[in-house]
Amino acid sequence: MMQEKIIACSVRLMFISGVAMGTGLFAHSALAQEVKTEAEKIQKVTVTGSAIKRVDTETAAPIEIYNKKDIERTGATTIPELIKNLASLDVNDTGEQTSNSPSGSGVTNIKMRGLSERNVLILLNGRRLPANALADGSGAGAAVDVSSIPLSALERVEILKDGGSAIYGADAVAGVMNFITKKNYQGAEGKAGYGKSSRSDAQEKTASLVFGVGDYEKSGYNVLASFDMIKRDPIMRNAREISRSSDFRRFFGGTDGRSGYSPYGNIAGGGQLKPCPPEDLSGTTCRFDTNKTLLTAVNGADRFSGMLVGSFKVNNDIRAFADFTYSENKDHFEAQPAPGVYKDDQGRNVNGRFMQIGPRTTDRTGSLTQLAVGLEGNTRGIDWEISAGKGVSKITNQDSNYAQVDLFNDAIANHRIDPTSTTNSEAEINKFRLTPLRTGKSELSFVNAKASGAILDLAGGPLSYAVGVSYLKDTLADNPDQNQIDNLVFGSIQQAKVNASRNSKAVFGELSIPFIKNVEAQVAVRYDQIDGVGNKASPKLAIRYQPVESLMVRASYAGSFLAPTLKQMYGGMDAGAESTDDPTICKAFPSIAGKCQNFSYLRVGGSNPDLKPETGKTYNLGFVFAPSNIVSIGVDYFKISKKNEIGTLELEKAIELGRYEIKNGEARILLNNQNLASTDISGVDLDFRLNLAKTAYGKFSLRNSTTLYTQIDSVPSAGEPTKNSLGIFLNPRYRNTFTLSAEYTDFNLALVARTTGETLDSDLGKDKIPAGTPTIPSFTEVDFGGQYMGLKSLTLNAGIKNLFDRMPPYSKMGSTNQYGSLGYSTTHNLRGRFFYMSANYKFY
């Protein structure tokens, strides 16, 4: 009794303090779960997007839910494979299709609403996960790697699509994706799968085990353990026609994307150190085809993930819980020997590639560890939860076969090696050979407390509240090799070191106000205080109106407040190599640009400790019409406006402002982080569902989900003209997923068609795109799969992904070094037809 009084007093004090401070909502446990009190004996759930437990799961927020059966229909064996089937997500396979990128290779991030991955909050059972430990200085990749989440443990996925900053925190600008695990699961089941492409590569082996013991209600506890494993072979670029060579002139309108960094040595001003083979000579430049060997189009995978979830009944009103997650992935990448600029024995700058040192390799090991513990319960009509935890993401990149710049140039100048030869003394090469090591660790510690309950009855139901507090500590340690920091690694990207941390505190509150019958309003506000960034309130207003049982109308407004990443603020300088034929850039470097053919330069980025938060506004207006249990139609219009976005100057603007230099013979354009840009995005989500009554031929259902963009406008910096990116490269107008499923006796069958809309083959604003620019046509992949459940305890699965073996269309932009030199847009995939099968056995 004393314990209950203490808890009740604490919760009421929390509520009074929250109201006094004008607080708003926080829902760090957006986990849907059942709670039955002795008094009520009814089911309450917490829905993603609200911290108030309720009987009705319909709220004013547009939420997309995929249950276990929906997930199984996709045939997905991993989270990256699953998200390709969700139309509301902007699929871009750059992580799977990136080789030897210090931060991006093998990583899967989620994007929504045309915004970067930093604008989507990823939750596992309603709790945050640490961001990827190695991220780009621009902020790219500073998000959760969702490939670390075990698929076998999931019960469902919930996607909040109207922004959730007032509920969950600053980084929920575009939306929230909440991965929710099984609850009170008893039994054991194992699954093993095998797949291979029709071209006998991309071999994939998967295995999973789920084990649950204890009935929470009867035994007072439940423990769930899950383990997932995947091993996948890569797809080599030379194994597909579209990417087998970086000379894309074999396609209509294609360009020669072969590198100007040649083993024969291209001398600045013209000519080569050694005669160039005629087939490799283009104008005065000797070209090198990087795609012919070594490089992958789709990376391999070697991943393991496991999860342990425990629930323990303290008494009839209080539950203790603990979640432990661990994942590990290993990747091996190979690339051509490093390109770069060296001095020949006459002191001339040479764009070359020293082949004898061997291919660059990166052995990448990443891990994610997270532990969360807490208590939740119901005391005197108040639902409450207290939780604490810590997540750690670690990544180690071990590189090899690089050269130390100064020692390499000294060996050439003193004739100890010939950079165009492959018969030099290994002893001399080993004097300048480097094996750079880069390590990263991202930590996120959190303590959360919240409470919710009813205050009084209104005409439409109880006036309910949720209040709480949150504390976060974010720490980042990114430690490149000292030679990488000093830009002394020949042909490598200059990388910046960062060791920084900051604390964030927040108070929050939410009200659910059912004014009259069938009308409910949601009012929420969150106040964040972030060290080194500032303070900000993020409001949310939403309303749901249901005039008749078959129609529900909803509208919402939310403000957002996205803080810069630690690396964006404190990460020093980094650089990446690119090449161009753009005369605007070449004119800035007349002494080394020559005839401006495949001219190489460095984009030099860097941190800025004076960065301010990005701010935004999100609007949503929609309805759901369900005239019967057979048909459901959902339509939602969304609009997002962001200001003070962190970015870099456009290249032409940087040159206009004189932000460029020549250093060590290399052209450098200086582009540090600034609050420059603004973005306006709008569109419509369409969701149509049809569930037919059972017939003699089975039970059929159909679902068609579309996200259609109507505006993607950005202003790169103040005073610059608006850039209209709607329907240009990497920004298709729409994504559509069509699913037709059938259930007949012991068979479940599903046909899934995924379509990405057409785009113009240019990344310029529409007003700058030249007439006659080709169009990348829309791209559709059709999957067909099924289950057989006629055997006791055994379920057999088989299917074909990309049934018609569609290959991506050629893209001029996709053939450039800036976009991976693959020859196609990374909104597509070149795996082709893929066969898979699996068996799932329930032990008991």
Automatic annotation (TrEMBL):
UniProt GO cellular component terms: cell outer membrane
Record's signal peptide: 1-32
Subcellular location: Cell outer membrane
Superkingdom of the source species: Bacteria
Main location group: membrane
PROSITE patterns listed in its UniProt record: TONB_DEPENDENT_REC_3
Pfam families referenced in this protein's UniProt entry, alphabetically: Plug, TonB_dep_Rec_b-barrel
Residue stretches making up the TonB-dependent receptor-like beta-barrel domain: 318-803
Membrane topology of this protein: Multi-pass membrane protein
Family: Belongs to the TonB-dependent receptor family.
Key word Signal present: yes
Record key words, sorted: Cell outer membrane, Membrane, Receptor, Signal, TonB box, Transmembrane, Transmembrane beta strand, Transport
All copies of domain TonB-dependent receptor plug, residue ranges: 58-176
SUPFAM superfamilies, alphabetized: Porins
Matching InterPro entries: Beta-barrel_TonB (IPR000531), Beta-barrel_TonB_sf (IPR036942), Plug_dom (IPR012910), Plug_dom_sf (IPR037066), TonB-dep_rcpt-like (IPR039426)
Official protein name in the record: Iron complex outermembrane receptor protein
